[in-house]
Design goal:
With 439 residues, the chain is of the alpha+beta class. Helices cover 23% and strands 33% of the residues. The chain has ten helices and 24 strands. The strands form five sheets. Strands 1, 2, 3, 4, 5, 6, 7, 8, 9, 10 and 13 form an eleven-stranded mixed beta sheet that branches. Helix 1 crosses helix 2 and helix 1 packs across helix 3. The radius of gyration is 23 Å and the shape is globular. The termini are close together.
Length: 439
């Protein structure tokens, strides 16, 4: 198999400035361009240099050519959301959508991975941790490309919402994208082009693992990862579609194997308020610096964390995020937890109505102006008068969905001398490393 090309969605806008360093040629018109450029969305066309087009594809004429986008949003809807200037290698594709012009970067997978590893992790990460992440980032991407091809070939209508009059359950995955393969933000994998230049170690890691992926029974593993599992990893089906992947089981992020049944409310209550031994239970700044870039380090508590709301704050927030007027909130009741303690279905009991929401990301979004760190939480009701709490204290565990590789846990393992094979074997049981292309 030859190395594939991936199409990465960067942003969508009505007026988009960009610039070329080196020469680019537009495939359809044959124009050669360099320096500052701009396109504008007009009457559902791309307006560029006096022409109205549906698509533009600029291809570099030299290996060191790149293009720059001055205002790319990173951390979309997260607490650290911001804009930054970003540079990219490869081709620049512009297409029309109903919301504006979509900017897409067409790039070879190994170059894409070099950026992902540099964007997801900091420059101090250990080599074995980086190698493990290179393998799972490559596996995840190829699994998504394969999945999207099957959906398109079979003309399947992919459904990610289950709703009724009293329940709203939704999950978010790369199938949300129809105009490109993956997006550039945390929704898929962080990809920030060559903005954060890949160190020699990252290039070495990509070269040494070229084409390596995780396989399970002749299928590419859908290798998920999150910042911190909180002590126990979660099942895929707790967070996305109801499909069980045998290589991603619930396991304790530790040399130990035993952990309580966190689907039981009493056990989850005790677990979340404790500080169990786990690879990801660390405050070592040197290790955390391997995983957390500068904006990630604005998050100081993640293995265990606390968030408080007044009644008014939470009622307004839930109404705004859900689009439903609940009235005053009486209780937040976990109806179903996964084996890591993450809530899959949450009942919101209010004075005007009772409503059920899920899955984990929808819960995190509903109860926060950005995202709660995870859905593994318990709720303390305080200052109760006439059965109405005046305050809510939410105590939680972990950062992210907790499925697959725990980045902080894997960083600790790399520091403790585990090889990348051992790290992968810990998080993805019975999966095998195989070479899909490359060496």
């Amino acid at each position: 198999m030859t190395e594939p090309i991936v199409q990465v969605g960067i942003l969508t806008g009505k007026k988009i400035p960009f610039s070329f360093t080196g020469e680019y040629r537009e495939r359809n018109t044959g124009q050669t361009c360099t320096g500052n450029q701009q396109v504008e969305w007009k009457n559902n066309f791309i307006h560029f240099k006096g022409e109205f087009l549906k698509e533009l594809l600029f291809e570099p004429l030299a290996a060191d050519s790149c293009f720059t986008l001055p205002e790319v949003t990173i951390g979309v809807n997260f607490h650290w959301e911001r804009k930054e200037e970003q540079k990219f290698q490869g081709a620049l594709k512009l297409i029309v959508s109903t919301e504006g012009i979509v900017v897409i970067n067409r790039i070879r997978i190994e170059d894409y991975l070099s950026s992902v590893i540099s964007s997801e992790m900091s420059a101090t990460a250990s080599k074995e941790f980086l190698k493990a992440h290179a393998v799972i980032s490559r596996s995840w991407l190829l699994a998504q490309l394969d999945k999207n091809r099957k959906i398109e070939t079979n003309k399947q209508k992919y459904k990610s919402v289950q709703s009724s009059g009293h329940e709203w359950v939704r999950w978010y995955d790369c199938e949300d994208h129809s105009l490109f393969d993956v997006c550039a933000d945390d929704h898929c994998q962080r990809y920030q082009g060559i903005t954060r230049a890949a160190r020699p170690l990252v290039k070495e890691v990509i070269r040494e693992t070229a084409g390596e992926i995780l396989m399970y029974e002749n299928s590419i593993c859908d290798t998920r990862f999150s910042k911190c599992c909180g002590g126990v990893t979660e099942l895929f089906e707790s967070c996305w579609e109801p499909v069980h992947h045998p290589y991603m089981i619930a396991l304790k992020d530790s040399r130990e194997t035993d952990f309580p049944d966190l689907t039981i409310e009493q056990h989850a209550f005790q677990w979340i308020q404790s500080s169990p031994e786990a690879f990801c239970n660390t405050t070592d700044k040197q290790i955390l610096g391997q995983v957390l870039n500068n904006y990630d380090q604005e998050t100081t508590d993640f293995f265990r964390w606390v968030k408080e709301y007044t009644q008014e704050e939470l009622a307004v927030l839930v109404s705004k995020r859900s689009g439903v007027d609940f009235g005053e909130i009486i209780d937040l009741v976990p109806l179903k937890r996964g084996p890591s303690g993450r809530i899959e279905r949450l009942q919101i009991v209010c004075t005007k109505r009772t409503y059920i929401i899920g899955k984990e990301l929808e819960i995190r979004r509903t109860l926060s102006t950005s995202h709660l760190y995870s859905s593994a939480f318990i709720v303390e009701k305080l200052d109760i008068q006439n059965n109405i709490p005046g305050r809510f204290r939410i105590k939680g565990a972990g950062w992210g969905h907790g499925v697959g590789l725990c980045q902080i846990g894997a960083a600790v393992m790399g520091t403790q001398g585990y090889t990348y094979n051992e790290i992968l074997s810990h998080y993805f049981r019975n999966a095998e490393i195989k070479n899909n292309y490359g060496k």
